Amino acid sequence: MRVVIAEDSVLLREGVQRLLADEGIETVAAVENGDGLLDAVTEHKPDLCVVDVRMPPTFTDEGLRAAIECRRRYPGLPVLVLSQYVEERYAVELLAGGASGVGYLLKERVADVKEFVDAVRRVADGGTSIDHEVITQLMVRSKKSPVDSLTPREREVLGLMAQGLSNTAIAGTLVVSDGAVEKHVGNIFAKLGLEPSNSEHRRVRAVLAYLDS
User: Fold this and answer.
1) What global pTM score does this model have?
2) pLDDT in tens, 25-40
3) Which helix (DSSP H) or strand (DSSP E) does residue 127 occupy?
4) Is-contact 86 74, C-beta < 8 A?
5) Rounded to an integer, what distance in angstroms lies between the CA atom of residue 74 and that of residue 71?
6) Are 181 and 157 in contact, with CB atoms under 8 Å apart?
């Protein structure tokens, strides 16, 4: 796997690069701003971009804007965004731009090497990995969200789906049967107005459905 890292903090940029190297993942470019990201993606055509939301010069949303532009130029380019805080507006915009190969993690997750590497590989493979804290905050941001119709257990399942877990993995996490998870997933699809499907795209759309409300 070939990765481009866009992060203005030298320590974090080098730390992520070394962490990935330990897992046999090559960093073909490590840049510190949005323009550098665009140039690196054009030159190297990486398998994944790991991008900080806030970078120079204004430290607002340069990283995200550059990531979205990269995906516009190269549809399907996997992008894993790292953010210091849960920034709802940025998360919604990124997720709404495409349902595959997208991740949004808080930077503190990098400290959990296994969790971070799993997210890197999942997103690079076209899956999704969304921090549970992001999901929690997005779920409660609108009182008129379709998600309000879900039961507490269905909300748990939806959150785990958003993190990229399979039905079997969700069953293991919640200590329930695969059949129980399949039933919850079916109920989620129905309540959000989505036809049941096992495809990754449909599962992510279930998470995104309430964002459009």
Assistant:
1) 0.70
2) 999 999 999 999 999 9
3) none
4) no
5) 5
6) yes
